[in-house]
């Protein structure tokens, strides 16, 4: 039997993929073309420079891969490190766990610093581990900037200060998949050596375009490992192949043309709004969501306000309630897509993503739908309380600074 049609739009409030602006969708409706033509660099060359601005980089190199963020993780590790190299990583959520798992499977020696889920990377612990590493065996520090599983943002500036205070030469790798294009990111100031992004979050595109911003230090590390017998195997993700082609405006293999055109338009959207306004808008929407959570009498997964993410809020349901039922009911009854709890917090939280192309009324729709689904599932929430708290905050706090 055919599925029943649902009137209206599906309200997408997972923390990625995010809503795609209409103008970006239109920009991706392009015919196939020759990606070796003399005109193709007119599209691509500006992309390499403009994308750096979203990373807060003045001296980095951008590589664009037809891949997800996971592929870009692999790119960072395999281009700069050798088999058996030691890396330091903080684990405090599903995505930091997956990156650690990848590093181990690639043959790296991972020193894991366990942190409570609902917190983030601990700069003091990172500094101490690096001070104790007298022989500088640790080659890289890996940190997830924004952990979507728990709605937590780590302080990358503080991590950089910790590395510098220890006087350690380790590379700094940062997963910015759910932060870059939505939260302030300063790759040059923080001396991030590999900053990783995916197209389906703050860049407001479909999944499938992986982006990495690589520092001169990381480029040098990659060049130094090129002739090593212990180098990690890489072919598809080899930066060297891209370096030979990108400066001319081309790629070593067939790129995703629609995503490149979409990226150009998405960057135009971000720059027209102004990056500072983009960051401010996400903060206001994040705080409005937290106001709703408080009005419901619930708590977020983030254990302290300093950990609050402005792109996703993970909401802890009362003891004995299955958050998965709230998510399913919201989808089936109200055509609202909420994020599920992952791994250690599966069934314990549901997530409202407030990232990408959305405004006040968009968010209020998600808050209203989540509120109704909770009430329908027996949670003692006062009808309208979350919407009222969020709308009061939004009326007093414009989304734009200018």
Automatic annotation (TrEMBL):
This is Serine--glyoxylate aminotransferase. Keywords: Aminotransferase, Pyridoxal phosphate, Transferase. Gene3D superfamilies: Aspartate Aminotransferase, domain 1 (3.90.1150.10), Type I PLP-dependent aspartate aminotransferase-like (Major domain) (3.40.640.10). The keyword Transferase applies. It comes from Methylobacterium haplocladii. It catalyses: glyoxylate + L-serine = 3-hydroxypyruvate + glycine. PROSITE patterns: AA_TRANSFER_CLASS_5. GO terms for molecular function: alanine-glyoxylate transaminase activity; L-serine-glyoxylate transaminase activity; L-serine-pyruvate transaminase activity. Substrate binds at residue 351. Its EC number is 2.6.1.45.
């Amino acid at each position: 039997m055919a599925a029943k049609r649902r009137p209206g739009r599906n309200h997408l409030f997972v923390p990625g993929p995010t809503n795609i602006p209409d103008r970006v969708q239109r920009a991706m409706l392009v015919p196939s073309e020759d990606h070796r033509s003399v005109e193709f660099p007119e599209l691509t060359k500006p992309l390499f420079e403009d994308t750096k601005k979203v990373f807060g980089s003045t001296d980095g190199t951008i590589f664009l891969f037809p891949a997800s963020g996971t592929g870009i993780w692999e790119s960072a590790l395999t281009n700069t490190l050798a088999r058996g190299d030691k890396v330091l990583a903080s684990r405090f959520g599903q995505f930091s766990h997956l990156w650690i798992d990848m590093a181990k499977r690639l043959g790296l020696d991972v020193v894991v610093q366990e942190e409570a889920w609902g917190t983030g990377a601990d700069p003091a612990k990172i500094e101490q581990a690096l001070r104790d590493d007298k022989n500088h065996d640790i080659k890289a520090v890996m940190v997830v900037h924004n952990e979507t599983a728990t709605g937590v943002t780590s302080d990358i500036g503080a991590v950089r200060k910790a590395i510098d205070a220890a006087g350690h030469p380790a590379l700094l790798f940062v997963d910015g998949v759910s932060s870059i294009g939505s939260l302030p990111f300063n790759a040059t100031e923080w001396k991030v050596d590999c900053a990783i992004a995916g197209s389906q979050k703050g860049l407001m595109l479909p999944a499938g375009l992986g982006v990495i911003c690589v520092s001169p230090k990381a480029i040098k590390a990659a060049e130094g490992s090129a002739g090593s017998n212990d180098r990690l195997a890489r072919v598809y993700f080899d930066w060297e192949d891209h370096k030979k082609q990108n400066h001319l405006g081309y790629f070593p293999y067939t790129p995703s043309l629609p995503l490149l055109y979409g990226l150009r338009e998405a960057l135009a959207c971000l720059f027209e709004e102004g990056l500072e306004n983009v960051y401010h808008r996400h903060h206001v929407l994040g705080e409005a969501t937290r106001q709703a959570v408080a009005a419901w009498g619930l708590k977020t997964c983030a254990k302290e306000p300093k950990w609050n993410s402005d792109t996703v809020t993970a909401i802890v349901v009362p003891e004995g309630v299955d958050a998965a039922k709230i998510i399913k009911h919201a989808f089936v009854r109200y055509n609202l897509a909420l994020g599920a709890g992952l791994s250690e917090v599966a069934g314990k939280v549901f997530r409202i993503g407030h990232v990408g192309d959305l405004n006040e009324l968009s968010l209020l729709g998600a808050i209203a739908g989540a509120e109704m689904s909770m009430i329908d599932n027996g949670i003692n929430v006062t009808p309208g309380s979350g919407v009222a708290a969020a709308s009061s905050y939004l009326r007093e706090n414009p989304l734009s600074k200018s």
